[in-house]
Amino acid sequence: MTTVIPTTSHWGAYGVRVVNDEIVEVVPHPADPDPSPLLGGVASAARHRTRVLRPAIRRGWLENGPGPTDCRGRDEFVEVTWDEAVGAVGTELNRVRAGHGNESIFGGSYGWASAGIFHQAQSQLQRLLNLIGGYTRSINSYSNGTSVVLLPHVVGSAEEVMRQPTSWPTIVEHTDLVVAFGGIPAKNVFVTPGGMTEHRTRDYLDRAAARGVEFALVSPLHNDLPSHIPATWYAIVPGTDVALMLALAHTLLVENLADREFLDRYTSGADVFESYVLGAADGVPKSAEWASTRCQIPADEIRQLARRMAALRTLVTVTWSLQRIPHGEQPVWAGLALAALLGQIGLPGGGFGHGYGSMGDVGSVGPSIGLPHFSKGGNKVRTFIPVARIADMLLSPGDAFAYDGGTYTYPDIRLVYWAGGNPFHHHQDLDRLRRALGMVDTVVVNEPYWTSMARHADIVLPTTIPMEREDLGAGRRDTHLIAMHRATTAPGEALDDHEIFRRIAEQMGVGDAFTEGRTTREWLEHLYENWRQKIGNVVPPFDQFWAEGGIELPFAEEHCTMFERFRSDPEQFRLKTPSGRIELASDVIAGFGYDDCPGHPTWIEPDHSDEDSFPLHLVANQPSTRLHGQLDVGAVSLASKVQGREPILINPVDAVARGIADGDVVRIYNDRGACLAGAVHSTTVRPGVTQLATGAWYDPLQLLDGSTLCVHGNPNALTEDRPTSQLSQGCAGQQTRVQIERFVGPVPPIRAHDPPTLAQRNGNPR
Ligand SMILES: Nc1nc2c(c(=O)[nH]1)N[C@H]1C(S)=C(S)[C@@H](COP(=O)(O)OP(=O)(O)OC[C@H]3O[C@@H](n4cnc5c(=O)[nH]c(N)nc54)[C@H](O)[C@@H]3O)O[C@H]1N2
Ligand SMILES: Nc1nc2c(c(=O)[nH]1)N[C@H]1C(S)=C(S)[C@@H](COP(=O)(O)OP(=O)(O)OC[C@H]3O[C@@H](n4cnc5c(=O)[nH]c(N)nc54)[C@H](O)[C@@H]3O)O[C@H]1N2
Ligand SMILES: [Mo]
Q: Which residues does a 6 A CB cutoff place in the pocket of ligand 2?
């Protein structure tokens, strides 16, 4: 028997057995009670034919040099030597710095990359870019980029709400009723950035159910709570949670069930919110009847739920997906206001939560201890964009944009460098993104795989995956720090991001500053020992840690949550808001004057203008079979495909009306784009709603009329590239409107799961 070689991943820690440089077995970490199903995709993806084997340059760039072009994603690639590729990148970085300034380099490079503290792709890239004078960065995330801007205004901190919420054990012990907007989707809880060794969320859900905790699942999808957990399913129309929340608030107010004492003592702006809910402000009472025409939940059920919430210890929780839609601030703020009316914020098991079921660590009780840290250095360029404004920036240099009360200008980007992310996975309206990327002079991408982003680059540099290098790995609130050992060799000529940037740094004359004279192993020891000292030498020295394959992290003392402290003494523990309290109306936000984000939680009627043409809602949520686009070529994701396409769930009522049989290839379209997918009839989606997860590798087929069809099923071919609001400029890609038809004619092949044609220098394809 070979030994198990330890590693970790965003979906958890595990080990591999290797024979003749091939992974023969994937073994979950012994401490993990509930290993992720994604482990089943690891071995098959590791050496998949789509690995990038050698540096490659787009022929048009090689022959014509840098410049705007519509050939990105269409030209063939020519394989080159590492020396040539590194030389080209260094020369191009210097050209752009000298001619346009560092601001013209976009190094935001958003994305999840891989677990591992040292080989974190963005940190390595940004360390290099900082050493050569800086870059335009991006701020916030696609995950919760709207909440992180809103919450500081209304409760003083996003961090405390999302990272230190009421713990699962407290919920299991104290909560009577969980009202889960967006549910608590089990598919998501295996994932935590950096990894999580012990997955316990599903066990907590089971224990809560065993204690008799009631669950109200508010979601268009029944699967958003594990089906064995007893729950009442409120099959809401997507995008209408705010209407329901306001109606619940309305019932509490008119039936005198709101906690007046709490509102007086702990909130500000309750009068403004109340007058809006009751209709004094605009003549429209947000009654249960008013809401039921929007959210399609009967008025009686809304009133009964409100009464139940007031009678029991109730936790209102909102998934991050609810803020990833137009006006995404509102469901979060309205959910908070609803919890405030119940008066249970800061009581054990009651109040407001955000992200239970969105990420594995939300509510986790793992040790809250700092982790080893690799420094990126400082960025001298101040220019930034909110992360989801990438295409706007590239298409409109010099234009002004609003953000959180300020006005900023989009820089003139000439060079885009991506390492560890895939905009053709994460961004919306991919046709538009394609056009946007055509505006710049040069696109450089470090990637292990021929993803769509790699295919749209000018220079592609092949990188390793974690099993091919050494690292330290742990996620937030992880129980273990894993010594990530090298398990296999890298395919072809792939190098670690660190080594790639070291070579570029050397060429640019900052090699010593980049490495500080350390080898990779010396870096790991350095990061570990620094950290060990910082936490008081309570863990073994590096050699022992490394030899043992990891260590258990020491538990630090638990603190109360921000809301518990605040409730205990609202003067001493004032919130960091202007009023020091929970703001149910915010003068600051009102003062910004944004019509798309008013000064209190507000129902903003969705745009119904295209409903006749595109009558179905499409929910584009996180995939259960992979991490975003990662592992799409792995066995678990491939097994879920229908005729090779991404499955789309469609209610039988909607399918039959369109003559779509289970297993048919369907064409999904709207006025932005179209894709194919494989129909799966399911009553787990409410009628009028379809569900197509993100992450099928974008596979655009150019049609004769000039439009593109993603033949594989990437929902971002359809989503709109619009911000949540001017306040946060967040990603609003979770939902869109579509029409669906059975696809007739020969089904085009999937090409995204094969590498592109690669030419040799002499012109012969390899
Ligand atoms: N429609 C719609 N779109 C969405 C969402 C949605 O709800 N709906 N959700 C959004 C959310 S929340 C997120 S977080 C984003 C996720 O978007 P991304 O994080 O961009 O998606 P990933 O597929 O994880 O991309 C990571 C890339 O890094 C590469 N990689 C892995 N390890 C390494 C490494 O060591 N070095 C280098 N150089 N590369 C590496 C992988 O191969 C992969 O291509 O998507 C967003 N997009
Ligand atoms: N397996 C797996 N797990 C993951 C990820 C992954 O790619 N794969 N990605 C990770 C990342 S980066 C993030 S940010 C988190 C994201 O966490 P979330 O954003 O919370 O996850 P989603 O799956 O996109 O959405 C959760 C559910 O919200 C429901 N929903 C959508 N729209 C509405 C609505 O209008 N109203 C209501 N009530 N419900 C709605 C959908 O049915 C969906 O299943 O997940 C993480 N976990
Ligand atoms: Mo995310």
A: 143, 181-183, 185, 187-188, 190-191, 218-221, 224, 236, 238-239, 241, 319-322, 324, 358-359, 619, 621-624, 627-628, 734-735
**C-alpha closest to that of 615 among 669, 661, 693, 681:** 669
Fold that domain 616-742 belongs to in CATH: Barwin-like endoglucanases (2.40.40)
Separation of alpha carbons 666 and 743, rounded Å: 5
Going by pLDDT thresholds of 50, 70 and 90, the confidence category of residue 763 is low
Closest-approaching ligand to the CA atom of 387 = 1
Instruction: Fold for 153-358+569-592, please state it.
Output: Dimethylsulfoxide Reductase; domain 2 (3.40.228)
DSSP structure string for 522-564: HHHHHHHHHHHHHTTS-S--HHHHHHHTEEEPPPPPP---HHH
Cut 0.90: pTM above it: yes
Q: Which two tokens stand for residue 125?
A: 């890239």
**89/83 Cα distance (integer angstroms):** 10
DSSP string, 53-107: -S-EEEHHHHHH-S---S-TTTS-EEE--HHHHHHHHHHHHHHHHHHH-GGGEE-
C-alpha span between 676 and 718 (Å, rounded): 11
Location of each CATH 3.40.50.740 domain in the chain: 56-142+376-513
Residues in the chain, total? 766
Q: Look at residues 97, 240, 96 and name the one whose alpha carbon lies nearest to residue 689.
A: 240
Picking from 654, 644, 638, 648, the residue whose alpha carbon sits closest to that of residue 674 is 648
C-alpha 626 to ligand 1 mean position (Å): 11
Chain Cα centroid distance, residue 579: 32
Is the CB of residue 692 less than 8 Å from the CB of residue 623? no
Predicted local confidence at residue 765, as pLDDT? 54
Q: Which of 14, 61, 110, 698 is catalytic?
A: 110
Q: How many Å apart are CA 440 and CA 438, to the nearest integer?
A: 6
Tokens 């560092």 map to which residue? Answer: 102
- Give how far Cα 25 sits from Cα of 115, 356, 487, Å: 20, 32, 12
Supply the pLDDT for residue 764: 54
Interatomic CA distance for residues 470 and 8, integer angstroms: 11
The β-bridge partners of 232 are 216
Which class would CATH give 56-142+376-513? Answer: alpha beta
Mean of pLDDT over the chain? 97
Are 179 and 15 in contact by the 8 Å Cβ rule? The answer is: no
Catalytic: 11?
Answer: no
CATH 2.40.40.20 domain locations along the chain: 616-742
Q: Where in the chain is the domain with CATH 3.40.228.10?
A: 153-358+569-592
DSSP string over 15-47: EEEEETTEEEEEEE-TT-SS--GGGGGHHHHHT
Q: How far is CA 230 from CA 176, 210, 510, in A?
A: 13, 10, 60
Per-residue pLDDT tens digits for 552-590? 999 876 778 999 999 999 999 999 999 999 999 999 999
CA distances (Å), origin 604, targets 219, 402, 416:
19, 20, 36
Our answer on whether the CB atom of 323 is closer than 6 Å to any ligand 1 atom is no
**Catalytic member of 14, 112, 266, 697:** 112
| Contact indicator for 431, 458 with CB cutoff of 8 Å | no
Q: Which is it for the CA torsion 538, 471, 88, 381, positive or negative?
A: negative
Instruction: Summarize pLDDT for 309-320 with one digit per residue, the tens.
Output: 999 999 999 999
Q: Known catalytic residue: 112?
A: yes
Beta carbons within 8 Å of 623's beta carbon, 6+ residues apart:
187, 637, 693, 694, 695
- Output the CA torsion sign for 126, 131, 136, 137: positive
Pairwise CA distance, residues 501 & 463, whole Å: 11
Q: Which of 191, 751, 722 is nearest to 476 (CA)?
A: 191
Please give the pLDDT value at position 22. Answer: 96
pLDDT tens for residues 439-494?
Answer: 999 999 999 999 999 999 999 999 999 999 999 999 999 999 999 999 999 999 99
Give the list of residues 6+ apart from residue 763 with CB closer than 8 angstroms, or none.
Answer: none
